[in-house]
Amino acid sequence: MTVALCLGVAGAVVGSVWTGLAALSLAALVWPLLSYLKLHQKVASVMWAGRRLWFEGPWQGVYQSLFPSSLVAVAGVWLSALTSAQDRPVWWWAAPACWALWILTAPLAVWAYLRFRQQHVRLGPLQLLWKVSLRDFWGAMASSVGWAGVVSVVLLGLSAMALGAMLIVVRSAGLPLPSNRVWLSAAGALGGLWLLLVWPHVQGQLVRLVWNKTGNRHLRFQSYLKVSAYVSLFAKNGLRLLLTGGLYWPWAVVNLRRMRTQTLQVWSRVEPEVLLAHWSPRQSEGAPEAVSPESVASVDFGKPPGLRTMAG
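The structure corresponding to this sequence follows.
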């Protein structure tokens, strides 16, 4: 579905830029629904003792968290296209202002999306909670911002050195300077490399924040994901995608999800046998009986034996 959506937008852009923008706007309307379907699949992929996690959030929640930011991004694309048009029907500062607004609202959309997801996940009969404020969210992202700054300085320094060496060679050999297309391709490659190094760091920090703050009074999760190892695996997958022309994508997704899931553990005050007794291993029998956080103490789970680990 994702590939079909991208190919539809790309095909419309080939026919006409404005048709492509219209197709992109329609795709933005469908994207939250596609994210909702993907969310169901991702949650169902997490298992413990043959039991899957259960997600019961309504589809409207994804639209409430992602749709405003998507609209701002689409508006930024339209304003950028109108600004670059020959007659320039909009002010030059409209597109930068819109993209600045998107940069400010995108983290809020991510926080709202994660909050919606984690508060509608159940581990068997127990409903989970996610207590993360915006302050906690920005605190976890501070290290990623620092890492992004380091990567930017290193890449810009290496690019400046390479540019200087190239200019020396061009002038000494009397060759013409590269065309604008070459410069744009080099800038795109540099941006892709920056994203390949920065995005997995952000994702790794989010994984630790999300699961370390997920639980209730009877159990909690603990993520032991090493961000450096996750960045390394992400970079290796990016290289394999490049060498295979994108065909390695499914295996790359599985590798990353496996690392995120297998570094999770559940610490419980409930006897594992008692928890499994209230949790059917077969999804065809329907969802496990939900227990709200307010009434979870009234369920007879036996005497809490103290925290114990249940490896995921």
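The first strand starts at residue 47 and ends at 48.
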